[in-house]
Each structure stands twice: as C-alpha cells, then as structure tokens.
Design brief:
With 142 residues, the protein is α/β, with parallel strands linked by helices. The protein is built from five helices and six strands; from the N terminus they run βαβαββαααββ. 29% of the residues lie in helices and 18% in strands. The longest helix has 13 residues, at 25-37. The mean pLDDT is 95.
Length: 142
C-alpha cells in the first residue's frame, strides 16, 4: 500500500459557520480545532495545514458547566514586576467574548508555526452578524 500526502496546491478549503449559542465551551472548541487541523478530511496530513475556515457567531452566549464562571481565570503579564493581571470567565465574557472562544481553540491546536497558521482560519464574532457572507459558509451543528 502506498501512503499519499496532501499537497498545498491540491487542497480545497471550505467555510463553515458555527453557532455556539448555549453550547458547552470545551466541547465546541475541541470540534472546531479538529476542523481547523483538517482531521475530518480523508486527506489529513499532520505536517500540512489541510484544515478549513470556521466562522463562529454568538460567542457571548457560550455555556460552561459547573462553577467556571467564577472559578476559571485568564492570566496575562505586562512584563514588569508585579504585572500579572487576571480576569475570571464572567468578566472576560463581558469585555471580550471573542477571546474566550479563540483562547479555548488556540490551546487545543499544535504549539508551533503550523498551529498559528491554523488559528488564522478561525473567525469569531460576539453577535449574529459576520462579514463572510461572500464565502458562503455552510452552517454545521456541533
């Protein structure tokens, strides 16, 4: 048997629209990461970005289980002494709901150049509207 690899010029990239209203954050993020990596395709190749584009809408209405709204924290550091800042999930959903979904998916992708390239195909919007109607994204249920 001969193994075939996907070639960059032979790939066709589809656009998918995902509505995350009342969906659990981690479960949706893992399925979106699989689509971005291309693992749902038969021509999946681990070292080639063969994934599709994903447009996520209604990020502000994402659901979580348990007490994560108050207990899950997001940290960032300014680089200076004492510069560690933290926000819990509830504060992040109020200020930047797009970043909650983007960070959940980012942490499920490979931690290298290929993962950063895959993350560029993720488009997250807090409301229902998005500017990608020209690409005709196919709505999928996760």
């Amino acid at each position: 048997m001969k193994t075939t690899w996907a070639k960059k010029d032979e790939l066709n990239r589809n656009w998918y629209l995902v509505d995350v209203r009342d969906k659990v954050l981690g479960r949706v993020a893992s399925q979106i990461a699989k689509i971005l990596m291309g693992k749902h395709k038969p021509e999946y190749t681990p070292f080639i970005d063969s994934g599709d584009f994903v447009v996520v809408v209604n990020a502000e209405k994402i659901a979580v289980t348990g007490k994560k709204m108050s207990d899950k924290y997001y940290y960032r550091h300014s680089g200076y002494l004492g510069g560690l800042k933290s926000k819990n999930l509830e504060q992040m959903l109020d200020s930047k709901p797009e970043d909650v979904v983007r960070l959940a998916v980012k942490r499920m992708l490979p931690k290298n150049k290929l993962g950063r390239q895959m993350l560029n195909k993720l488009k997250v919007y807090s409301g229902q509207e998005h500017p990608h109607d020209a690409q005709k994204p196919v709505s999928i249920e996760l």
